[in-house]
Write a structure and sequence with these properties.
The protein is mainly alpha-helical. The chain is about 40% helix and about 10% strand. Helix 4 packs antiparallel against helix 5, helix 4 packs across helix 6 and helix 4 crosses helix 7.
Length: about 475
């Protein structure tokens, strides 16, 4: 059995309300690294509006583009929306800045495609508001506009490739706040709606700039679309802002950040009037579980991020301990780190051994934990906090029979991808998939698999690499 884990933590939104426009403070953002030094963009506000312009500027800067607030001779690209070339040229004349041969006057579609590609794409006739003369160009085909082909987006994460390159973080961050709030309120329907919406948007290879971009995208219910529209128009969501300032949400987020504390305990503490962890710890009438005691004792360590270097160091410790009892065991790091993440909140390991007996599997984890406990006592790390040179890290250990390793590895690699894989198996293939097996309800047999690839093949799915499962 794995060690107990902390409850899932997320963040998200609610129904849209009429409110006055709020601009300014939400658009103040930290500086971003500039990847493309040779380009200097200026986004024209004419026919676009202040809020949308600020929204596009922030997105472009996040992607590494240099976007200037003011027009100057250093500008290489002017980006406009719903403006003709003659309108932009006329506007330029009024700014006492002439369109030189080096200055590109481009439609906003160029910027959108560039942000999706993560680099400046080549400018073609469809992008240029003032066409260049390509008569002497060795490649006159540049003036032709190839049709844009967009594949149908599946409602299932297991049919979408989702890397860590999130083009729509401004939306998914908001959805995750709202989903977390609904989880705290035990509203499973709305929580799931925002979680699925965030999952879909993370898989998109382009940034949503207007509501037209949401057409044909699954899992975007009316409640979700209201949030998207509000962020596009105002640069932020009033619902998210209200949630982040809500006392109940703040308290639950704080309480559940303690290892071993779930929703029921959080609800109890909140009803008792607690709002800080210090007052909870000082209440002698409260009884804490062993996990909660550890959660308070090592709180600062456990709420901090675990780096990949730290995860690799823990991996060596786990292998050393496991191999002391099962020398032939395979130890695989799973979870977010297997999906390519650089930081996480815990480290998950799958342990399996081809020559182990049932008794070996049952006794391994207690033996490993006892070994670590003895070392902890011997090194004086029982409760020493002052001047400590070590860090407490949450580790989840999973022991599985060797013949079921593929199913366990697939399940413990995690994210919404794995949840949707089970949903797909049930609804589309009439099969039952879990961390132990795959059962075909039609044939009434368990399907064997030596690898993840074989499980995908049983389900009739294209294999998706772990680093493409960040749903």
């Amino acid at each position: 059995m794995p060690l107990p884990t902390n409850p899932l933590q997320m963040v998200h939104l609610g129904p849209r309300k009429k409110r006055p426009r709020q601009m300014g403070a939400s658009m103040v953002c930290p500086p971003h690294d500039i990847k493309f030094q040779d380009l200097a963009l200026y986004i024209l506000e004419k026919k676009m509006g202040t809020t949308r312009r600020a929204f596009l500027m922030e997105l472009a800067r996040r992607k590494g583009f240099r976007v200037e607030d003011e027009l100057s001779d250093s500008i290489t690209h002017i980006v406009a929306e719903n403006n003709s070339g003659s309108e932009v040229l006329e506007w330029l004349q009024g700014q006492n800045l002439k369109a030189s041969s080096q200055l590109e006057l481009l439609d906003v579609s160029w910027l959108i495609e560039s942000m999706a590609a993560g680099r400046p794409v080549e400018t073609t006739g469809k992008h240029q508001l003032v066409k260049r003369d390509y008569s002497a160009s060795p490649n006159p085909e540049l003036q032709k506009t190839p049709p844009l082909v967009i594949k149908k987006i599946s409602q299932y994460a297991c049919q979408r490739r989702t890397t860590l390159n999130n083009c729509n973080q401004i939306f998914t961050d908001a959805f995750e706040v709202l989903a977390e709030n609904y989880e705290f309120r035990e509203n499973e329907v709305f929580c799931l709606a925002f979680m699925r919406a965030a999952s879909v948007l993370k898989s998109l290879p382009f940034t949503i700039i207007s509501m037209k971009d949401t057409e044909g995208i699954p899992c975007l219910e009316d409640k979700v679309k209201c949030v998207i529209e509000e962020i596009i128009e105002d640069g932020e969501s009033s619902e998210v802002k209200a949630v982040l300032n809500d006392e109940r949400y703040q308290s639950f987020k704080l309480f559940t950040s303690v290892f071993g504390v779930g929703l029921k305990t959080s609800e109890k503490w909140f009803r008792m009037g607690y709002r800080t962890l210090n007052k909870i710890k000082l209440d002698k009438t409260l009884k804490f579980t062993p996990m909660q005691k550890a959660g308070f004792l090592y709180y600062e360590d456990l709420v901090s991020c675990v780096t990949r270097a730290e995860a690799e160091a823990v991996c060596m410790l786990v292998k050393e301990a496991v191999w002391a009892f099962l020398p032939e065991a395979f130890v695989t790091m799973t979870g977010g780190f297997r999906r390519g993440k650089k930081i996480g909140h815990d480290v998950d390991f799958l342990i399996t051994s081809p020559g182990s007996t049932d008794e070996d599997e049952e006794q391994l984890l207690p033996k490993v934990i006892n070994l670590w406990e003895r070392k902890r006592v011997d090194s004086g790390k029982c409760s020493q906090q002052e001047g400590k040179t070590w860090k407490a890290i949450r580790v989840d250990l999973v022991m599985c029979p060797y013949e079921r390793r593929a199913f366990a590895l697939l399940g413990w690699t995690g994210s919404r991808f794995e949840r949707d894989l089970r949903r797909y198996a049930t609804h589309e293939r009439k099969m039952i998939l879990d961390n132990h097996a795959l059962y075909d309800k039609t044939k009434k047999i368990f399907l064997k698999a030596e690898s993840e690839e074989e499980i995908f093949a049983h389900l009739g799915l294209d294999y998706i690499e772990p680093w493409e499962r960040n749903a």
